[in-house]
Amino acid sequence: MQRRAAIWILGAFKTSPSEGIEALAGLILVKYHIQKLTERSLICPFKLPENHIIHQLMDNSSPQPNPSNPHAIGSLTNCQRNIAKGHIIDSKTKSYGIFPSFEPLHQEFTPGQQISDIFSNRFSFNLVNKKEKNINCAQELNNLVLLNSSPSSAIIVFDTSIKDNIATSIAHVHQAGSPLIKTIHHASFITSSEAELFTMRYSIDQVCHKDNISKIIVITDSMHSAKCIFDSSAYPLQSHLAAILSELRLFFNKSQNNSIEFWKCPSRLKWRFHKDVDKDTKSFKPTPSLPCKILWDYCRKKDSNDIIKQWKMCFQALDSEGNNFLDLVDNDFNTIKPSYIKEGPWLQAFGHSNSLCARATQAITNHAPIGEYHLRFFPNKQFSCPCNKYPIETRRHILHECQRFNEY
Question: What class, spelled out in words, does domain 107-283 have in CATH?
Answer without folding.
Answer: alpha beta
